[in-house]
Specification:
Blueprint: E1 2-10, E2 20-26, E3 30-38, H1 42-61, H2 66-76, E4 88-96, E5 100-106, E6 112-115, E7 118-120, E8 125-129, E9 132-140, E10 146-150, H3 152-155, H4 169-182, H5 186-200, E11 209-217, E12 221-226, H6 235-243, E13 253-257, H7 259-269, E14 274-275, E15 288-290, E16 293-297, H8 300-314, H9 321-327, H10 332-342, E17 346-351, H11 368-384, E18 388-393
Parallel strand pairs: 12-13, 12-17, 13-16, 17-18
Antiparallel strand pairs: 1-11, 2-3, 3-4, 4-5, 5-9, 6-7, 6-10, 8-9, 10-11, 14-15, 15-16
Helix pairs in contact: 1-2, 4-5, 8-10, 8-11
Length: 394
């Protein structure tokens, strides 16, 4: 399975530090998602959550049992001088390479599971460790599963001091369900949930608010062909490879970037390039279609825009509604960015290295070196998004 993890947090209004802390850990044989919520807010909560999450990450990475982890946490956390207690809630979700999973929850809201598009409850058992009650679940993950871990800032979102009686875990689960149907990608699901909470807070969160999401899916490959091959006799080889299924015999998403590349595909497949009705964009050339190809776009300008669209993710910036609005636009760059961002685990780039005759126009400042530089940026972007990237040059 392909495992995709991400999260979004809101700080308590007026605080510079978040009292929630998320750790995403990759080991040789597992993926681990951890959310710790420190008591209170601000610096003290941040210290408690940071210590707890790091202890859990380190010990789970080394294969420690939750009993030992909790004992270590209780012995390590500093005592709050005001409340005279060291307290930090947490949730840990570990998924192994054999698709077995372990969930442990200590005083955090119950993890939400969306399975086969529906809200599903995991069967949990309770036990006590050193006077602390935890919930555990052991199960097998399935293709399409979406797991949402939350801090209680999500659960009790409301404006002012008045509790919103219409806001509860079930409402959050419905938001996760809708979001996962529209866009099954962890970053967007986490954004939608926390944005809904922020709306309930009227933009002034009364508590640190975090949603961490893990999505399970079968691997999916995106093949992108751009640039004509050096040798014309390789045209058929690159198109034949483009049309092949992935190594597991599964269908791929196929995108062709560049007018010359599109003509090669059209000629080899004996399929015409058809215009697609769309609203004109002032900066991005229109896209076309070829039967059997998912998307056909212009080359350099479109790929440049793809990289610009995804740059906030690469730079680790906090994503906002504008980012997702641009991603949802009907233009070639947005469609490629969405396919790369949300719909694939593997990217295969098929790059032709011939100097494109279409670029002899001096008004277009593009040559082979520019194209190679641009595709390298695309490679770096895809890797920053956690995709597995391979490149074939022709």
């Amino acid at each position: 399975m392909y495992i995709d993890m991400d999260y979004r947090s809101l700080n308590h209004a007026g605080e510079e530090l978040c009292g929630d802390k998320v750790e995403m850990v990759l080991t040789e044989h597992s993926h681990i998602l951890i959310l710790a919520d420190g008591m209170g807010s601000g610096v003290k909560a941040n210290i408690l959550a940071s210590l707890t999450s790091r202890i859990l990450a380190t010990m789970f990475r080394e294969g420690a049992a939750i009993d030992e982890c909790l004992s270590t946490i209780l012995a390590t956390l500093p005592i709050c001088q005001e409340r005279h207690v060291a307290y930090c809630t947490f949730t840990v979700l570990q998924v192994n390479d054999d698709n077995s999973a372990y969930l442990v929850e200590y005083d955090n809201p119950d993890t939400i599971l969306i399975r086969k598009g529906e809200i599903t409850e995991l069967e949990r058992t309770k036990r006590t460790i050193e006077g602390k009650e935890i919930q555990e679940a052991r199960f097998t993950v399935q293709d399409g599963d979406v797991y949402v871990i939350m801090s209680d800032g999500c659960l009790y979102a409301s404006s002012g001091l008045k509790l919103n009686m219409n806001w509860d875990r079930n409402r959050l689960a419905k938001i996760a369900k809708t979001s996962s149907r529209i866009s099954p990608y962890s970053k967007r699901i986490a954004f939608d949930i926390v944005q809904a909470c922020d709306d309930q807070y009227w933009g002034q969160p009364g508590d640190d608010t975090t949603a961490a999401v893990m999505r399970i899916s079968a691997p999916h490959t995106l093949k992108l062909f751009t640039g004509p091959p050096v040798h014309k006799e390789d045209d058929e080889a690159v198109v034949r490879y483009l049309m092949q299924d992935d190594e597991n015999g599964e269908d791929c998403t196929r995108i062709v970037c560049g007018g010359t590349s599109a003509k090669i595909v059209s000629r080899i497949l004996n399929k015409p390039i058809e215009p697609v009705k769309q609203d004109p964009h002032p900066e991005i050339p229109p896209y076309d279609s070829i039967a059997g190809i998912d998307l056909v776009t212009e080359g350099v300008l479109t790929l440049n825009k793809v990289i610009d669209l995804l740059k906030p993710c690469v730079l680790g910036k906090s994503l906002d509604e504008l980012f997702f609005d641009e991603l949802d636009q009907d233009n070639g760059a947005a469609l490629i960015a969405t396919a790369l961002f949300e719909d694939c685990s593997h990217l295969e780039l098929l790059i032709g290295q011939a100097i494109n005759e279409a670029y002899e126009n001096p008004e277009i400042s593009t040559d082979l070196a520019t194209r190679i530089h641009l595709t390298q940026e695309l490679i770096d972007t895809a890797k920053a998004l956690g995709k597995t990237v391979s490149v074939k040059y022709y």
